[in-house]
Design brief:
The chain is of the alpha/beta class and about 600 residues long. Helices cover about 45% and strands about 20% of the residues.
């Protein structure tokens, strides 16, 4: 897909997120981009939190944030959205200004000056108060500028705010197009060892013959790994661990830190090393004239993310740590698979076997589970009641775009395909887990975020003896799609109603609906109509306002996004008093 077509599709998606013009387009664009970044592992579970203000003569801006579970990593987002329908350049001066406005907000929060300027009952005040409290314990801070234009510079020099390093990056339409069209965000990661370590990296290379991969063995200088993590951050780990587990405890990362500080020369002997997948290797000469790796394209760490991040953060916390003596064993797998689905399957298997001792994203390793394979099969064989349209279950990342590229060989065929299977009917594995768990009255689990919710969902698909449960049939599939439609329509009507913590309000509202009248809702009617009635949506909107009030009241000043994760919150919200459902709702028997 060409970038202009992608831009127009993105603008159409933004419009689909809006309802009756009551939601600002910039808010919808922010949601679209943040959710994409979450799906590919570039950030944590995001929260839309829009603020434009002024402190003395300084302009402040924020569009959203994402906070790691351990509250030691923070991403801030600020949007520059113009709704353009032609490829347009955004001046670096504009992206830099937006970054500065976000940095001022961050700085004021760190200094404790922001909270006193805000309405204490507002969501932005709750976030500012939390940020002030956790700032000293943050290990990583990033600011992302989101724009529907093309930026010349995709990143800027790291800034220092309150003795913390803050990385500045731009997610523009070009970068977004690259990720979504290729389905492989690692493509833009190119590591040049002549730049990183001054010469080619010594290695032993095995071509692989007829296999769908080749491989090399090497010893990475820790100094090089620290530089790469500083430059690319968690993007190095997108096929593996998406967030850094803290070194504050006594686990594996604390042990790595101890070795780096006290026995750096023995790190190679003690550490299991890292596993990397790559698309291309290019060779050059090392200092002694032997063959080595001069650069790698598509660099991605699938095992050893904790080692890499620990090296970076240990040096950050303890600048006297001597990394010059540290080498890290590395196995580099060079991918030869031509089909994206086969490539993802191979990477998933590599991750699964290489990470037997580490926690990794369950959704990355579950694409080939019988449950997901069967839902994909059903989605490709079952048509909507009109006999033309279908829903698309994206079992493997990027498979929807692969379908469009494979079958949409002419403009007419592509148009017909998009009409039959629009992006609005595309469902990912983590989407499905969210829809089902919300209906099963587990909004606290849904609020944990896509990956943790997916982990719980997959655990529920396994019986007590460890075997998989029965596979879904046609009737099960139609009910799943009805739940998806109900959840998505709830999202749509709630977006203009609540500027912050929409994800939590949606999950809890669906759970309240299931708790109050779930056993009487005819999901088959929703499938047949491919729509939720206006009457039911009206009832959902009424309950959503009541759910939002209960969430804020019971949070007692805590951030809603954190309170919503607690079982106590689920008990409080589902047990609250709600208005009696109205009469005449078509779906209610």
């Amino acid at each position: 897909m060409k970038i202009l077509d992608f831009l127009l599709e993105t603008q159409a998606e933004v419009r689909s997120h809006m309802s009756d013009g009551s939601l600002f387009a910039e808010f919808a664009f922010t949601d679209v981009v943040m959710q994409h970044m979450t799906e590919i592992g570039m950030t944590f579970e995001p929260v839309g939190c829009h603020h434009r203000g002024q402190y003395r003569n300084a302009i402040l801006r924020l569009s959203g944030y994402a906070l790691s579970d351990d509250h030691d990593q923070l991403d801030l987002f600020v949007s520059l959205y113009d709704g353009v329908d032609v490829i347009t350049q955004v001046p670096d001066s504009e992206t830099k200004m937006a970054a500065e406005q976000c940095l001022r907000f961050l700085s004021l929060c760190a200094e404790g000056k922001m909270v006193q300027t805000l309405d204490p009952s507002s969501d932005i005040a709750s976030f500012a108060n939390t940020l002030q409290a956790i700032y000293n314990d943050l290990d990583q801070i990033r600011v992302f500028i989101l724009t529907d234009k093309i930026a010349k510079s995709k990143s800027y020099k790291t800034r220092e705010i309150g003795q913390k390093s803050v990385r500045l990056e731009v997610m523009d339409i070009e970068r977004l197009h690259h990720h979504l069209s290729e389905g492989k965000p690692r493509d833009e990661l190119i590591v040049d060892f002549n730049e990183v370590s001054g010469c080619a990296l010594p290695c032993i290379f095995v071509p692989g013959g007829d296999e769908d991969y080749g491989y090399a063995l090497a010893a990475f200088p820790a100094v090089a790994l620290r530089y790469l993590y500083e430059r690319f951050g968690a993007r190095l780990l997108e096929a593996n661990v998406r967030s850094f587990l803290s070194t504050k405890g006594k686990g594996v990362n604390a042990g790595i830190q101890n070795t780096l500080r006290n026995e750096p020369g023995r790190f190679m002997a003690y550490n299991n090393g890292i596993v990397i997948v790559a698309d291309e290797l290019h060779f050059g000469k090392t200092l002694d004239g032997s063959t080595g790796i001069s650069w790698i394209k598509g660099f991605q760490i699938v095992n050893g993310g904790q080692t890499t991040a620990s090296i970076y953060f240990t040096k950050r916390r303890y600048p006297d740590t001597d990394l010059s003596r540290v080498r890290v064993p590395a196995k580099i797998i060079v991918m030869h698979a031509q089909e994206p689905a086969k490539e993802e399957s191979l990477i998933s298997d590599i991750s699964r076997f290489a990470n037997s001792q580490n926690a990794i994203r369950q959704s990355d390793l579950s694409a080939n589970k019988p449950f997901h394979v069967e839902i994909e099969r059903l989605s490709r064989t079952i048509y909507c009641p009109d006999g033309v349209g279908q829903w698309f279950y994206e079992r493997a990342a990027g498979s929807y775009n692969t379908l469009l590229a494979r079958d949409g060989t002419t403009p007419a065929k592509l148009k017909a395909l998009k009409e039959a299977i629009p992006t609005a009917r595309r469902i990912t594995k983590t989407d499905l887990a969210k829809y089902i768990n919300a209906w099963q009255k587990k909004p606290d689990i849904v609020s944990l975020g896509n990956q943790k919710n997916f982990d719980r969902f997959m655990a529920d698909l396994t019986s007590s003896d460890g075997s998989d449960i029965a596979l879904p049939n046609v009737a099960d599939y139609k009910v799943m799609i009805a739940k998806a439609k109900l959840f998505r329509d709830t999202q749509k009507i709630l977006r203009p109603m609540f500027q912050a913590f929409q994800a939590n309000v949606v999950a809890y509202t669906v759970a309240v609906l299931a708790e109050r009248i779930g056993d009487r809702v005819d999901l088959n009617l929703i499938w047949s109509n491919q729509a939720v009635s206006h009457k039911l949506l009206e009832q959902i909107a009424i309950w959503a306002k009541e759910v939002n009030e209960v969430l804020h009241r019971t949070a007692s000043g805590r951030m809603i996004s954190e309170w919503a994760k607690k079982p106590e919150c689920r008990v409080a919200v589902l047990g609250a008093h709600y208005t009696t459902p109205m009469n005449g709702i078509p779906e209610v028997r």
